[in-house]
Design a protein that fits this description.
The radius of gyration is 34 Å and the shape is elongated. With about 525 residues, the chain is an alpha+beta fold. The chain has 15 helices and 7 strands. It folds into 3 domains: about 160 residues, no CATH class; about 100 residues, no CATH class; about 110 residues, Heat Shock Protein 90.
Length: about 525
């Protein structure tokens, strides 16, 4: 599921443009051309319907629409094309210093300059077109001695305010680009936020579809002169938008949050009263008098009519809504399982082989090899049996870490240039933790922090208190050779761990990472 905000907006703008054009043609059919020609005739200026009316009005409208298409099909996609930045050995947020360096390197700066150039050119094009349209549609005003296209407040004669036209176009274009920036930021936040992404995408698409519908109704009525004055528009939005907000709030937030609990539980009632009260505030705008009575009636309507209706709608869509709420969490868990699937293929065969090798190592008195095989078997058993649990005791996660570090020390102990320090304390570690959350950080450290030809170091620390688990890894950094087969491979499960942290410990974890110079550092704290 993708966020359809851009597509829905383009549909709305296209339909609105078609309505405005159709309404314009409809009004022209029922309008005597003499009302346009009157000022020209009175001032003895030649009049042409196409030159002085149709060309200015339709031409500027088409230019505005084409500019909108150009911005959304060319400019904005090019500016928002994804670029990956890497810090250390993992794709995580880089430090502010690196972002500045990246910008000064030219890529972001080039995009900014490209945007500025386009902005200036569009302002010149549309400003010139707007000024020309004003001149043609009001040509009768400008036939006098001393006419100038530049505005002069000391000249009593009417003049064309050319700079005002350019300034207005610049303001409108700037306002739209600011809106587009907000739009792209929201879309990016929804698509990058792994937790409940499908649900958030669904809500965003629901909102944009609704906005298309409610804005097209007054657009159609006003374009064809079916309503007059702005009172209808104010009343329409004052009534429709609050009703939609109540519908969205109840259906996709309050009722799913209630779960299997009672509808009349105090937390549910309190939230319902507060939201309906806030959403009823615009109601009195629809009526010129007796605001208090209108507000009370509107609030009662939301509580006694709209809320039961939304409850019925929620019951019909309940399975789909709850599935969307839990879909992302299930997806991340299944991804985690798949990442370790290769290690679980035919596990009994692998265990039998390890037991055979373990027995052979003991017979040959290769104690170090036997210990390594035993540790590897314990790790595989952990991955097979305990990795599927939602929570495990901290001591089991620590055992896995210790086995992994011991195996890595066995591999690297012959090199005096490699320093491995692990300070893993089990004191106060009585918490339960989601399995396999810590090992990817250690795995990445050994993968990218060890070089057989350069001085290398890894420092691992784990400590617990009654409320928090604090884990940190610090390792040297080495650039891999171009022919290294591991160069393009990322650490097992690293991205998945970041996603799981957001889902399992929302608001209860902090992670910082920094990779500058020759050292990479990551620290994770969890409040289980």
């Amino acid at each position: 599921m993708k966020v359809r905000w851009r597509q829905h907006e383009m549909i709305f703008v296209t339909m609105a443009a078609a309505m405005l054009l159709g309404g314009y043609v409809w009004r022209m059919r029922n309008t005597a051309w003499q009302q346009y020609a009157g000022p020209f005739i009175n001032n003895h200026v030649p009049f042409n319907l196409f030159r002085n009316v149709l060309l200015p009005d339709i031409g500027v409208a088409l230019l505005l629409y084409c500019t909108y298409l150009f911005l959304n099909l060319v400019t904005i996609p090019r500016l928002t094309s994804p670029k990956k930045l890497e810090a250390g050995t993992a794709q995580i947020t880089v430090s502010l210093k690196k972002i500045i360096i990246y910008a000064l390197a030219g890529k972001i700066l080039k995009k900014v300059l490209w945007l500025i150039v386009q902005f200036v050119l569009i302002v010149l094009l549309l400003g010139t077109a707007y000024n020309a349209a004003v001149y043609l549609s009001h040509e009768w005003q400008f036939h006098y001695p001393g006419f100038s296209i530049f505005f002069n407040k000391n000249n009593p004669n009417s003049q064309l305010n050319i700079w005002g036209g350019y300034a207005m176009i610049a303001f409108l274009l700037g306002a739209y680009l600011l809106y587009a920036f907000v739009r792209e930021s929201v879309i990016n936040a929804i698509e990058e936020f792994s937790g409940r992404r499908a649900f958030r995408t669904f809500i965003c698409n629901q909102v944009t579809v609704f906005l298309i519908q409610i804005f097209l109704v007054p657009f159609f009525l006003v374009s064809f002169n079916l309503v007059h004055g702005g009172r209808f528009v104010i009343a329409f939005f004052s009534l429709v938008i609050p009703l939609f907000l109540v519908f969205m709030s109840n259906t996709y937030w309050l009722f799913p949050l209630k779960g299997e609990g009672s509808f009349f539980a105090r937390p549910v009632i309190n939230r319902l009263l507060i939201t309906t009260f806030l959403f009823t505030l615009p109601f009195p705008l629809a009526f010129p008098t007796d605001h208090i009575s209108v507000f009370i009636i509107g609030w009662a309507t939301q509580l006694l009519v709209i809320t039961p209706v939304t409850w019925l709608v929620y019951q019909q869509k309940k399975d789909k809504i709850l599935a969307l709420v839990g879909a992302q969490k299930a997806l991340v868990k299944s991804t985690a399982d798949l990442q370790f699937l290769r290690s679980q293929i035919n596990p009994h065969f692998l265990f039998n082989v390890l037991n055979t090798l373990y027995g052979a190592a003991l017979q040959e008195k290769a104690d170090r090899t036997a210990t390594g095989i035993q540790q590897l078997g314990d790790m595989m058993r952990f991955m097979l049996h305990e990795n599927n649990l939602d929570r495990i005791d901290m001591n089991r996660e620590i055992d896995y870490l210790n086995n992994y570090i011991a195996l890595q020390k066995l591999r690297t102990q012959s090199s005096p240039e490699i320093i491995i320090e692990d300070n893993i304390s089990e004191q106060n570690c009585h918490h339960k933790i989601a399995p396999m959350l810590l090992i990817p950080f250690v795995e990445n450290a050994f993968k990218h922090g060890i070089s057989l030809t350069e001085k290398s170091w890894i420092k691992i620390n784990l400590a617990c208190n009654e409320k928090e688990i604090i884990f940190s890894v610090r390792n040297s950094m080495h650039f891999r050779q171009q022919d290294d087969p591991e160069k393009e491979k990322s650490g097992i499960g690293f991205k998945n761990v970041l996603q799981r942290l957001k889902l399992i410990y929302p608001g209860k974890h902090t992670i910082t990472a920094n990779g500058e110079g020759k050292e990479f550092f990551v620290q994770l704290s969890i409040q289980p």
